[in-house]
Amino acid sequence: MPRTGVRAEEFTGCTAAGHRTCPVPSPFTAGGYQEGMVEDLLTTVASSAWALPLLFVLVLGDAFLVVIPGEAAVTALGALAVSQGEPALVAIVLVAAAAALTGDAACYLVGRTIGLQRWRWMRTSRAQAAFAWARLRLERRAAVVLFTARFIPFARLAVNLTAGATRLPAPRYLAVAGLAALGWAIYQALVGAVVATLVPGGPVVAVVVSVAFAVGLGLAIDAVLARRLGARRAADGE
């Protein structure tokens, strides 16, 4: 135990001549070292030339597979844009929007060329119910459904495939899908940027809090929309 008034000594690992301790504090404490590693990793990712291409790939894949963290990637980079100064927030929004539109348009093309029965998963009762719901909504309010579905992962896939299968005119589809992709990208990036601005603690805290906030907000929106969908189905007698 250190004496009163003497700086705390730390074990150096050296046993020669009884030199077991040193009055110089070690910077390699477990918590600080690990946090520093994570912060260095985030800094490297933010400044890497691969940051935006990787973002494009993740968002593009998210259009087909909801388990790919496209939304989380946009939000995380939005936080890093504020806490680290790079990548540029505008570049994040533009890349995310372009990737989102590309993925949605690819789903539309799949639906237009092969329909909604080709693969086994398409013929499941759950998928067919989702396609029927999307078809009905597209007939009534195509622009509204296309825009709002961009923010709901499962609905997004069903709506885009159905839009292609029902031969929704491509110019109209692309115009609405483009606006929806841009709005989605701005929203996701700004969540990260705003959280990073308001929450102190550096890039690690900014990324963790912003992604957690975005996921929680997304789940809340999904729950509200699901409740409204259930009410509409009951009203329509579906």
Helices and strands in order:
Elements lengths: L9 E2 L9 E2 L7 H18 L3 H12 L7 H14 L5 H26 L10 H25 L3 H13 L4 H29 L3 H35 L2
Antiparallel strand pairs: 1-2
Helix pairs in contact: 2-3, 2-4, 3-4, 3-7, 3-8, 4-6, 4-7, 5-6, 5-7, 7-8
How does this structure look, described?
There is one protein chain. This protein is mostly helical. It is 72% helix and 2% strand. The protein is built from eight helices and two strands. The protein has helices at 30-47, 51-62, 70-83, 89-114, 125-149, 153-165, 170-198, 202-236, and strands spanning 10-11, 21-22. It has a two-stranded antiparallel sheet with strand order 1-2. Helix 2 runs antiparallel to helix 3 (70-83), helix 3 (70-83) runs antiparallel to helix 4 and helix 7 crosses helix 8. The longest helix is centred in the C-terminal third of the chain and has 35 residues, at 202-236. The chain starts with 9 loop residues before the first strand and ends with a helix.
Low-confidence stretches: 5-12, 23-35
The geometry reads as: elongated
Strand content: under 5%
Q: Total strand count, please?
A: 2
Characterize this entry briefly.
The protein is mainly α.
Comma- or semicolon-separated keywords:
238 residues; 2 strands; two-stranded antiparallel sheet; single chain; mainly alpha; 2% strand
